[in-house]
Amino acid sequence: MTRIGTLLALASALALAGCAPVAAPSGPPASAIQAPAGSPVARHGALHVADGRVADSHGQPVTLRGMSLFWSQWAPQYYNAQTVAWLASDWKVSAVRAAIAAEGQDSALTHMDREIAKAATVIDAAVAQGIYVIVDWHAHRQHPAEAERFLAELARRYGHLPNVIWEPFNEPLRDNVDWSRDVKPYHERMVATIRAHDPDNLIVLGSPSWSQDVDMAARDPVPGDNLVYTLHYYAATHKAELRAKADAALAAGLALMITEYGVVEATGNGPVDLASSQEWWDWAERNGVSYLAWSIGDRNETSAALQPGAPTWGWGDGQLTPAGRLMRAHLRRAAGLPR
Protein backbone atom coordinates (compact mmCIF):
# COMPACT_ATOMS: atom_id res chain seq x y z
CA MET A 1 0.00 0.00 0.00
CA THR A 2 1.27 3.48 -0.81
CA ARG A 3 1.86 5.96 1.97
CA ILE A 4 -1.21 7.96 0.92
CA GLY A 5 -3.25 4.76 0.85
CA THR A 6 -2.03 3.85 4.32
CA LEU A 7 -2.97 7.30 5.62
CA LEU A 8 -6.47 7.11 4.14
CA ALA A 9 -7.08 3.59 5.39
CA LEU A 10 -5.88 4.51 8.88
CA ALA A 11 -8.00 7.65 8.90
CA SER A 12 -11.04 5.62 7.97
CA ALA A 13 -10.36 3.02 10.64
CA LEU A 14 -9.82 5.63 13.32
CA ALA A 15 -12.97 7.49 12.32
CA LEU A 16 -15.01 4.31 12.53
CA ALA A 17 -13.50 3.55 15.93
CA GLY A 18 -14.43 7.02 17.18
CA CYS A 19 -10.97 7.71 18.64
CA ALA A 20 -10.47 11.15 20.18
CA PRO A 21 -7.07 12.89 20.03
CA VAL A 22 -6.00 12.26 23.62
CA ALA A 23 -8.73 10.09 25.13
CA ALA A 24 -8.41 6.35 25.69
CA PRO A 25 -9.80 4.47 22.68
CA SER A 26 -13.36 3.22 22.93
CA GLY A 27 -14.33 -0.42 22.49
CA PRO A 28 -13.52 -3.60 24.39
CA PRO A 29 -10.86 -3.61 27.10
CA ALA A 30 -7.30 -4.48 26.08
CA SER A 31 -7.59 -7.89 27.72
CA ALA A 32 -10.37 -8.83 25.27
CA ILE A 33 -8.52 -7.79 22.09
CA GLN A 34 -6.87 -10.50 20.00
CA ALA A 35 -3.53 -9.50 18.52
CA PRO A 36 -4.10 -8.73 14.82
CA ALA A 37 -2.98 -11.53 12.50
CA GLY A 38 0.62 -11.06 11.40
CA SER A 39 1.36 -8.44 14.06
CA PRO A 40 4.54 -8.71 16.18
CA VAL A 41 2.64 -9.96 19.23
CA ALA A 42 0.67 -12.47 17.14
CA ARG A 43 3.96 -13.81 15.76
CA HIS A 44 6.02 -13.82 18.94
CA GLY A 45 3.64 -13.93 21.91
CA ALA A 46 5.01 -13.51 25.42
CA LEU A 47 8.71 -12.66 25.63
CA HIS A 48 11.20 -14.13 28.08
CA VAL A 49 14.95 -14.28 28.73
CA ALA A 50 16.80 -17.42 27.71
CA ASP A 51 20.60 -17.82 27.67
CA GLY A 52 21.19 -14.09 27.93
CA ARG A 53 18.86 -13.18 25.05
CA VAL A 54 15.28 -12.02 24.71
CA ALA A 55 13.30 -14.83 23.09
CA ASP A 56 9.70 -15.31 22.03
CA SER A 57 7.12 -17.91 23.00
CA HIS A 58 8.61 -20.30 20.41
CA GLY A 59 12.09 -20.01 21.91
CA GLN A 60 13.42 -17.91 19.01
CA PRO A 61 15.50 -14.74 19.57
CA VAL A 62 13.58 -11.49 19.09
CA THR A 63 14.82 -8.02 18.19
CA LEU A 64 12.24 -5.29 18.72
CA ARG A 65 12.62 -1.98 16.89
CA GLY A 66 10.64 1.09 17.75
CA MET A 67 10.21 4.60 19.06
CA SER A 68 9.94 6.21 22.46
CA LEU A 69 7.42 8.95 23.10
CA PHE A 70 8.75 12.15 24.66
CA TRP A 71 8.28 13.03 28.37
CA SER A 72 4.56 12.64 28.96
CA GLN A 73 3.95 15.99 30.64
CA TRP A 74 5.65 17.94 27.83
CA ALA A 75 4.27 16.14 24.75
CA PRO A 76 0.92 14.76 25.93
CA GLN A 77 -0.71 15.18 22.52
CA TYR A 78 1.17 12.10 21.25
CA TYR A 79 -0.10 9.83 24.01
CA ASN A 80 -3.06 8.62 21.99
CA ALA A 81 -4.31 5.81 19.76
CA GLN A 82 -3.66 7.66 16.48
CA THR A 83 0.04 8.17 17.17
CA VAL A 84 0.56 4.52 18.10
CA ALA A 85 -1.46 3.29 15.12
CA TRP A 86 0.52 5.47 12.71
CA LEU A 87 3.84 4.30 14.14
CA ALA A 88 2.73 0.69 13.73
CA SER A 89 1.31 1.06 10.22
CA ASP A 90 3.64 3.60 8.60
CA TRP A 91 6.87 3.47 10.61
CA LYS A 92 6.54 -0.31 11.10
CA VAL A 93 7.56 -0.27 14.75
CA SER A 94 7.24 -3.48 16.72
CA ALA A 95 7.38 -1.60 20.05
CA VAL A 96 6.63 1.81 21.53
CA ARG A 97 7.78 3.29 24.82
CA ALA A 98 5.57 5.40 27.05
CA ALA A 99 8.00 7.71 28.87
CA ILE A 100 5.80 8.62 31.83
CA ALA A 101 7.32 11.67 33.48
CA ALA A 102 8.30 11.01 37.08
CA GLU A 103 10.26 14.24 37.53
CA GLY A 104 9.98 17.89 36.68
CA GLN A 105 7.00 20.19 36.89
CA ASP A 106 3.56 18.72 36.27
CA SER A 107 4.82 15.12 36.47
CA ALA A 108 3.37 11.93 37.93
CA LEU A 109 4.74 12.95 41.31
CA THR A 110 1.93 15.49 41.55
CA HIS A 111 -0.56 14.16 38.96
CA MET A 112 -0.37 10.39 39.38
CA ASP A 113 -3.84 9.45 38.17
CA ARG A 114 -3.53 11.59 35.06
CA GLU A 115 -0.18 10.04 34.11
CA ILE A 116 -1.43 6.51 34.81
CA ALA A 117 -4.28 7.27 32.39
CA LYS A 118 -1.76 8.32 29.71
CA ALA A 119 0.16 5.08 30.15
CA ALA A 120 -3.08 3.10 29.95
CA THR A 121 -4.05 4.86 26.72
CA VAL A 122 -0.74 3.92 25.10
CA ILE A 123 -0.95 0.33 26.38
CA ASP A 124 -4.49 -0.08 25.04
CA ALA A 125 -3.41 1.34 21.68
CA ALA A 126 -0.38 -0.95 21.48
CA VAL A 127 -2.54 -3.97 22.29
CA ALA A 128 -4.98 -3.00 19.54
CA GLN A 129 -2.08 -2.82 17.05
CA GLY A 130 -0.44 -6.04 18.24
CA ILE A 131 2.85 -4.39 19.18
CA TYR A 132 4.86 -4.37 22.40
CA VAL A 133 4.86 -1.44 24.81
CA ILE A 134 7.51 -0.43 27.32
CA VAL A 135 5.98 1.27 30.36
CA ASP A 136 8.77 3.58 31.48
CA TRP A 137 8.84 5.29 34.89
CA HIS A 138 10.88 8.13 33.40
CA ALA A 139 13.07 9.32 36.27
CA HIS A 140 16.71 10.12 37.01
CA ARG A 141 16.31 9.88 40.79
CA GLN A 142 14.58 7.41 43.04
CA HIS A 143 10.97 7.98 44.02
CA PRO A 144 10.21 4.49 45.34
CA ALA A 145 6.80 5.05 46.95
CA GLU A 146 5.42 6.82 43.89
CA ALA A 147 7.01 4.30 41.54
CA GLU A 148 5.43 1.44 43.46
CA ARG A 149 2.00 3.03 43.23
CA PHE A 150 2.39 3.58 39.48
CA LEU A 151 3.79 0.14 38.66
CA ALA A 152 1.44 -1.79 40.94
CA GLU A 153 -1.66 -0.17 39.45
CA LEU A 154 -0.66 -0.79 35.85
CA ALA A 155 0.69 -4.29 36.52
CA ARG A 156 -2.61 -5.14 38.18
CA ARG A 157 -4.52 -3.99 35.09
CA TYR A 158 -2.21 -5.21 32.34
CA GLY A 159 0.27 -7.71 33.76
CA HIS A 160 -1.56 -10.66 32.18
CA LEU A 161 -0.98 -9.35 28.64
CA PRO A 162 2.04 -10.43 26.56
CA ASN A 163 2.48 -6.91 25.12
CA VAL A 164 3.77 -5.20 28.25
CA ILE A 165 7.41 -4.61 29.23
CA TRP A 166 8.21 -2.73 32.44
CA GLU A 167 11.00 -0.15 32.90
CA PRO A 168 10.96 1.05 36.53
CA PHE A 169 13.97 3.43 36.43
CA ASN A 170 14.82 5.24 33.22
CA GLU A 171 18.30 6.67 33.87
CA PRO A 172 19.96 6.67 37.29
CA LEU A 173 22.49 9.47 37.56
CA ARG A 174 26.25 9.02 37.75
CA ASP A 175 27.62 11.12 40.61
CA ASN A 176 27.44 9.56 44.07
CA VAL A 177 25.32 6.69 42.72
CA ASP A 178 26.54 3.13 43.22
CA TRP A 179 24.96 0.13 41.50
CA SER A 180 25.13 -2.36 44.39
CA ARG A 181 24.48 0.14 47.17
CA ASP A 182 21.81 2.34 45.60
CA VAL A 183 20.32 1.09 42.36
CA LYS A 184 20.17 -2.68 42.83
CA PRO A 185 18.11 -2.49 46.08
CA TYR A 186 15.67 -0.13 44.37
CA HIS A 187 15.26 -2.57 41.49
CA GLU A 188 14.74 -5.48 43.87
CA ARG A 189 11.90 -3.55 45.49
CA MET A 190 10.31 -2.66 42.13
CA VAL A 191 10.68 -6.19 40.77
CA ALA A 192 8.84 -7.50 43.83
CA THR A 193 6.10 -4.90 43.33
CA ILE A 194 5.59 -5.85 39.69
CA ARG A 195 5.84 -9.60 40.27
CA ALA A 196 3.02 -9.43 42.81
CA HIS A 197 0.72 -8.81 39.82
CA ASP A 198 2.73 -9.89 36.78
CA PRO A 199 4.80 -13.05 37.28
CA ASP A 200 6.59 -13.25 33.97
CA ASN A 201 6.69 -10.23 31.61
CA LEU A 202 10.07 -8.63 30.95
CA ILE A 203 11.36 -6.01 33.39
CA VAL A 204 14.09 -3.69 32.08
CA LEU A 205 16.55 -2.37 34.65
CA GLY A 206 18.54 0.86 34.44
CA SER A 207 22.09 1.32 35.71
CA PRO A 208 24.16 4.35 36.85
CA SER A 209 25.62 6.89 34.43
CA TRP A 210 22.31 7.31 32.60
CA SER A 211 21.90 3.54 32.09
CA GLN A 212 25.37 2.97 30.66
CA ASP A 213 27.09 1.05 33.49
CA VAL A 214 25.77 -2.31 32.35
CA ASP A 215 29.17 -3.87 32.98
CA MET A 216 28.84 -2.99 36.69
CA ALA A 217 25.37 -4.51 36.81
CA ALA A 218 26.74 -7.67 35.21
CA ARG A 219 29.10 -8.17 38.15
CA ASP A 220 26.22 -8.07 40.66
CA PRO A 221 22.92 -8.73 38.85
CA VAL A 222 19.45 -8.53 40.34
CA PRO A 223 18.15 -12.03 41.09
CA GLY A 224 15.06 -13.18 39.22
CA ASP A 225 13.74 -14.35 35.90
CA ASN A 226 13.05 -12.36 32.74
CA LEU A 227 15.14 -9.39 33.81
CA VAL A 228 16.77 -7.30 31.08
CA TYR A 229 19.20 -4.38 31.44
CA THR A 230 18.80 -1.23 29.42
CA LEU A 231 21.62 0.49 27.57
CA HIS A 232 21.16 4.12 26.51
CA TYR A 233 23.32 5.84 23.93
CA TYR A 234 23.43 8.90 21.69
CA ALA A 235 25.30 8.13 18.52
CA ALA A 236 27.25 11.38 18.14
CA THR A 237 28.59 11.10 21.72
CA HIS A 238 28.82 7.39 22.61
CA LYS A 239 30.80 5.09 20.38
CA ALA A 240 33.17 2.13 20.62
CA GLU A 241 33.98 2.59 24.31
CA LEU A 242 30.33 2.19 25.34
CA ARG A 243 29.88 -0.77 22.99
CA ALA A 244 32.84 -2.41 24.72
CA LYS A 245 31.02 -2.09 28.06
CA ALA A 246 27.94 -3.59 26.50
CA ASP A 247 29.98 -6.44 25.02
CA ALA A 248 31.35 -7.20 28.49
CA ALA A 249 27.82 -7.33 29.91
CA LEU A 250 26.65 -9.63 27.13
CA ALA A 251 29.66 -11.89 27.64
CA ALA A 252 28.76 -12.13 31.34
CA GLY A 253 25.30 -13.37 30.40
CA LEU A 254 23.25 -10.19 30.83
CA ALA A 255 20.32 -9.70 28.44
CA LEU A 256 20.32 -6.14 27.07
CA MET A 257 17.72 -3.88 25.50
CA ILE A 258 18.27 -0.34 24.21
CA THR A 259 15.12 1.39 25.42
CA GLU A 260 16.43 4.83 24.42
CA TYR A 261 18.94 5.97 21.82
CA GLY A 262 19.48 9.06 19.74
CA VAL A 263 21.10 9.72 16.38
CA VAL A 264 22.54 13.04 17.66
CA GLU A 265 24.51 14.18 20.73
CA ALA A 266 23.67 13.26 24.31
CA THR A 267 22.48 16.84 24.82
CA GLY A 268 19.59 16.03 22.49
CA ASN A 269 21.00 18.51 19.98
CA GLY A 270 23.75 18.75 17.40
CA PRO A 271 23.84 17.25 13.91
CA VAL A 272 22.76 13.74 13.02
CA ASP A 273 25.71 11.33 13.09
CA LEU A 274 24.78 8.87 10.36
CA ALA A 275 27.99 6.83 10.46
CA SER A 276 27.85 6.22 14.20
CA SER A 277 24.11 5.55 14.05
CA GLN A 278 24.71 2.83 11.48
CA GLU A 279 27.47 1.31 13.60
CA TRP A 280 25.09 1.12 16.54
CA TRP A 281 22.26 -0.35 14.45
CA ASP A 282 24.62 -2.97 13.06
CA TRP A 283 25.84 -3.82 16.58
CA ALA A 284 22.29 -4.18 17.89
CA GLU A 285 21.20 -6.38 15.00
CA ARG A 286 24.33 -8.53 15.26
CA ASN A 287 23.77 -9.10 18.97
CA GLY A 288 19.99 -9.45 18.89
CA VAL A 289 19.48 -6.37 21.08
CA SER A 290 16.17 -4.52 20.74
CA TYR A 291 16.37 -0.75 20.25
CA LEU A 292 13.94 2.19 20.46
CA ALA A 293 14.76 5.74 19.40
CA TRP A 294 14.22 9.02 21.25
CA SER A 295 11.75 10.53 20.51
CA ILE A 296 8.25 11.12 19.19
CA GLY A 297 7.85 14.75 20.15
CA ASP A 298 7.88 18.17 18.50
CA ARG A 299 10.38 19.81 20.81
CA ASN A 300 12.78 22.26 19.20
CA GLU A 301 15.84 19.99 19.41
CA THR A 302 17.50 17.76 16.87
CA SER A 303 16.74 14.48 18.65
CA ALA A 304 13.00 15.09 18.19
CA ALA A 305 11.43 13.19 15.31
CA LEU A 306 8.75 15.80 14.60
CA GLN A 307 8.83 19.42 13.58
CA PRO A 308 7.25 21.88 16.05
CA GLY A 309 3.48 21.80 15.75
CA ALA A 310 3.33 18.44 13.98
CA PRO A 311 -0.06 16.71 14.26
CA THR A 312 -0.62 13.52 16.19
CA TRP A 313 -0.40 11.23 13.14
CA GLY A 314 -0.09 11.11 9.36
CA TRP A 315 3.25 12.93 9.23
CA GLY A 316 4.69 13.70 5.82
CA ASP A 317 8.39 14.27 5.22
CA GLY A 318 7.95 18.01 5.73
CA GLN A 319 6.64 17.40 9.25
CA LEU A 320 9.61 15.22 10.19
CA THR A 321 13.01 16.45 11.31
CA PRO A 322 16.19 15.05 9.70
CA ALA A 323 16.40 12.64 12.65
CA GLY A 324 12.77 11.64 12.18
CA ARG A 325 13.23 10.96 8.48
CA LEU A 326 16.32 8.88 9.19
CA MET A 327 14.67 6.83 11.93
CA ARG A 328 11.51 6.20 9.92
CA ALA A 329 13.52 5.11 6.88
CA HIS A 330 15.62 2.75 9.00
CA LEU A 331 12.58 1.16 10.64
CA ARG A 332 10.91 0.62 7.28
CA ARG A 333 14.06 -0.90 5.79
CA ALA A 334 14.40 -3.21 8.78
CA ALA A 335 10.82 -4.35 8.13
CA GLY A 336 11.73 -5.09 4.52
CA LEU A 337 9.88 -2.13 3.00
CA PRO A 338 11.01 0.71 0.76
CA ARG A 339 11.60 4.03 2.42
TrEMBL record:
Domain Glycoside hydrolase family stretches: 56-299
MF (Gene Ontology): hydrolase activity, hydrolyzing O-glycosyl compounds
Range of residues in the leader sequence: 1-17
Provenance organism: Alteraurantiacibacter buctensis
Pfam family membership, one: Cellulase
Protein name, UniProt field: Cellulase family glycosylhydrolase
Organism domain of life: Bacteria
PROSITE patterns cross-referenced by the UniProt entry: PROKAR_LIPOPROTEIN
Keyword Cell membrane: no
Similarity-based family: Belongs to the glycosyl hydrolase 5 (cellulase A) family.
Gene Ontology annotations of biological process type: polysaccharide catabolic process
Record key words, sorted: Glycosidase, Hydrolase, Signal
Lineage of origin: Bacteria, Pseudomonadati, Pseudomonadota, Alphaproteobacteria, Sphingomonadales
InterPro entries linked: GH (IPR017853), Glyco_hydro_5 (IPR001547)
